[in-house]
Design a protein that fits this description.
The chain has 589 residues and is of the alpha+beta class. It contains 19 helices and 24 strands. Strand 8 and strand 9 form a beta hairpin. The relative contact order is 0.08.
């Protein structure tokens, strides 16, 4: 704690027009655990109020202070004041302003006030409220506004990101006027912390005003050296024993008694230093409204379009006729965003998006690289292009053959992606098992649903990613097997401690030869062994595990990831076929 805390240079220099967050309304008190009137007591208070005003009326704000733009009465309590007042509007002689935060009181001692972000702002910026946070789904669920509360739940500050506020202001042809009040005070046993001798010091810069005062007080907080007088008046004409007391007569000297006293304060002298700052700021709108009105952004992104490394802007790509190439690491980045998705059309093509909007048609080439029609990227919003461009590379390996078939030949491939069938085949096996044996095949643990969307070939961007993919496949297949149910179906005793894969093998061996059953389950053995491959298995054993899955280790890891998923899905289909035809299959002897 030093003099600079009272001088408030940090608050004086801070400009909301350039801040990331803008407080639209705030009332916040921060104090320490020392009781008022004792040495060390410290308190800090801030208040922000704001009013949206048409830009052409900016000149009138020179005559507005904090009291002018505060809520004239608690909204919703017009019945108390007897005159209607629209909740979001402040009317003055020369202008009409709009409150973007509405303070709702409930006229009782139980319910705390509620602050509402103006509906027009919420709807036109496309915001969604989640608790005390407003997010923008069409911008990747970015946090736009947030309400903070005290421990008792009462609101103390509602702020919004400057970028979104200014965009909305542009669409409305308005700016916003923010008035702020700050106070800081603390009690000392002397005033040596200050370098100036005056008890009152002040400064003014344009309309902003700062003042610091030193008050002498007794310990306990009462003014030093002063007395307090008080008068006690009581009625003497009402008998408490009367059945019906009557006190309708006007009080006068005859029916009242008055006692006056004076008291002096005691306690050692302390010094209370109080600093206050009144601040006034105007926030300008942006020149274009990209979010609210969808106006064109004046920023462009450049992409590599040929083997020589030449680049073209996103706007140029819209002309069409070219493709772009991206590293497979792009997919994991896109899918890390909330609302993202990947859908598969064929073995090597699909649609992907980092948000809940329509996706981009992509293809995977023989090197595991992603190719996309350039025009589709050029049409994406800027924030999405910023993700894509970080993975853009020079063309290599040609465009995906299946993407070419679809976009050039207009003859989409009839192949299927194993990723598209993993969840459905597991569900179908469970349904078939319950129908055939009246017992489940898989337990259906909740972790399976969480992991399912992460099972795709693009996890395998490198060797570690390939092993991580194997681990998650093992978790949703091997670890989720309902061991007790399958033991009953396979006629295996409960005391037998064999693993889930061996149980599946023995179950299948009731209808097909043991070697064929072992061949069906071998990919599951491989992924199960690989789950610890990065830490526990020697390289020779790791390669044997890959052999069980029938993976070509000479291919890019992305392609190996595809082969891993395909081997598991293909053999899950074999299991489904056997269960569905359980009664018709006669085991060869």
């Amino acid at each position: 704690m030093n003099q600079s805390w009272f001088e408030m240079q940090d608050l004086k220099k801070h400009k909301l027009n350039n801040s990331v967050w803008v407080p639209l309304y705030a009332e916040k008190l921060i104090k320490n655990n020392i009781g008022y009137g004792k040495i060390g007591y410290q308190e800090e208070f801030l208040r922000h109020s704001s009013l949206m005003i048409p830009v052409e009326k900016r000149s009138v704000i020179e005559n507005l202070d904090i009291n002018n733009i505060e809520f004239d009465n608690p909204k919703g309590l017009n019945f108390v004041f007897g005159e209607y007042s629209q909740s979001d509007i402040l009317k003055a002689d020369e202008f009409q302003g709009t409150h973007l935060v509405l303070n709702q009181s409930f006229d009782n001692n139980y319910d705390i006030d509620e602050w509402h972000l103006h509906q027009d702002l919420v709807i036109n910026l496309g915001l969604k409220r989640e608790g005390d946070i407003w997010v923008c789904p069409r911008k990747g669920y970015v946090e736009v506004a947030k309400l903070e509360r005290e421990q008792d739940g009462s609101p103390n500050i509602l702020k919004i990101k400057n970028q979104y506020l200014k965009d909305y202001l542009c669409a409305r042809g308005c700016g916003i006027y923010v008035t702020s009040y700050f106070s800081r005070n603390k009690l000392f046993n002397n005033k040596s912390i200050l370098t100036w001798k005056e008890d009152v010091k002040s400064s003014k810069e344009e309309k902003d005003y700062w003042e610091c005062r030193v008050l002498e007080v007794h310990e306990g907080g009462f003014p030093y050296g002063q007395n307090i007088s008080f008068t006690h008046v009581s009625r003497i004409d009402v008998d408490e024993d009367d059945d019906i007391p009557d006190m309708t007569s006007f009080p006068d000297d005859e029916n009242t008694i008055t006692v006056s006293k004076e008291k002096s304060f005691k306690g050692k002298k302390l010094y209370e230093i109080i600093a206050e700052l009144w601040k006034y700021e105007w926030i300008n709108p942006t020149k274009t409204s990209i979010i609210t009105l969808g106006q064109k952004e004046n920023i462009d992104i450049f992409y590599i379009v040929d083997a020589a490394g030449n680049k073209e802007s996103g706007n140029e790509l819209i002309k069409g006729g070219k493709w772009l190439w991206f590293k497979p690491s792009l997919v994991n980045n896109l899918l890390s965003m909330r609302g993202s998705f990947i859908k598969w059309f064929t073995k090597d093509t699909g649609s992907i998006s980092c948000g809940p909007s329509s996706g981009v048609h992509f293809g995977v080439n023989e090197l595991g690289l992603i190719s996309v029609y350039a025009k589709d990227i050029g049409k994406l919003p800027l924030w999405q292009q910023q993700i894509w461009v970080g993975h853009n590379i020079s063309p290599e390996g040609g465009i995906s053959k299946e993407l070419h078939d679809s976009q050039v030949k207009a003859n989409p491939a009839s192949t299927k992606s194993p990723e598209a069938f993993l969840e459905s085949i597991i569900n179908e096996i469970n349904i078939a098992s319950k129908s055939q044996f009246n017992l489940p095949f898989f337990r259906g643990h909740e972790i399976v649903n969480e992991l399912m969307n992460s099972i795709h070939r693009f996890r395998a961007v490198d060797e570690n990613g390939l092993l991580s993919l194997a681990k998650d496949i093992a978790r949703i297949i091997v670890d989720d097997v309902d061991v007790e149910s399958l033991k009953k179906i396979a006629s295996i005793s409960k005391s037998n401690k064999i693993g889930s894969i061996k149980i599946i093998e023995n179950l299948l061996a009731k209808k097909i030869p043991q070697e064929e059953a072992k061949k069906i389950t071998s990919p599951f053995v491989g992924v199960y062994e690989l789950r610890h491959g990065d830490a526990h298995l020697p390289s020779s054993d790791i390669e044997k595990s890959f052999e069980l899955i029938r993976i070509d280790r000479s291919l890019p890891t992305i392609i190996q990831g595809y082969q891993m998923i395909y081997a598991c899905v293909d053999n899950l289909h074999n299991i489904l076929f056997i269960i569905n035809n359980w009664d018709e299959i006669k085991k060869e002897k």
